[in-house]
Amino acid sequence: MTTLELHGVHKSYGAVAALKGIQLSVPRGSRTAIVGPSGSGKTSLLRIIAGFEAPDAGRVVLQGEVLADGSAIVPAHRRGIGYVPQDGALFPHLSVADNVGFGLDKSAPDRQARIDELMDMVSLDRAMLQRRPHELSGGQQQRVALARALAQRPKLMLLDEPFSALDTGLRASTRKAVAQLLQAAGITTILVTHDQAEALSFADQVAVMRAGQLAQVGAPLEVYLRPKDPVTASFLGEAVVLNARLSQGWAECALGRLPTGDTLRHGQGQILLRPEQLNVTPLISTPPSAGSGAVCAGTVVESDFCGAVCELSVQLDEDAGGTLVHVHSAGLDAPLVGARVAVSARGTAHVFPAS
After folding, report:
1. What CATH number does domain 2-232 carry, 3.50.30.60, 2.60.40.10, 3.40.50.300, 3.60.21.70?
2. Using one digit for the tens of pLDDT, what is the confidence trace for 20-71?
3. Are 210 and 237 in contact (CB under 8 A)?
């Protein structure tokens, strides 16, 4: 069963088409991440779902209720949708208690009990209720903003890059805590982000936007390992895209002969490997000959130490086409620039659909 359905949503700003016929279905209780570069249209789409803007054409349906049909829309305050903006947008002159309870009836006898419940839900100490937003950390402020959005028991929660202002460690822990909270509450959620890793780790469904259209929608593992085109592949992470000759479920490429699992494609095509599928080992013996399995020789030409992982660029030898490939190696024992290495691949290569 779906919570949200978008049918042919279009939006233009003057001569600029921001959204071009968006079709999207969001299952009930799921977490969907809309990810894309700046200018791809993801924020425009979120604002139309929230009711802050009207589409030029298309329909927005929430649990069977039509919220927008072209320019005819249900106002944002009547949609039953929670919204957490990037900066939290807390009222600086109000206490945490008044921020959390802002949308609650002040005369309701259970108002304080509801505020206490919401603080517990977002794992904040009730002792913070009398503080002002500037007395909280960034992560605490985002949790207060989430509690305020949850106060009205929304049918749908919209998160507009809510973790982007947090430092790396706090960002990851806050994202995980929020995901667990929303899942436990059974609230359907849409996250808009430009961070690919954030989208893949947070969501059950990832929607990749490009130039106002959805390039691909699917489960995180599906869109990461089996993207529809090289552009989508490169946006979701580092990609090793190679030309190959395809035949009977195998690909002959610069790295040798690799399994693809696609027995239908024959002839020239392109394949994808992720850098973590490649291994490098010191080359201390005779270089492997071209075509001797999925192993070939090369030279490390660039090394970017990132702690646990070292990102290497390896120039394959001329008999393997001189191709430059990117490899993720363990940081502690990564080869140095100039080192001669043997490059091998593991797992299955993804074959891009024919264009």
Report:
1. 3.40.50.300
2. 999 999 999 999 999 999 889 999 999 999 999 999 999 999 999 999 998 8
3. no
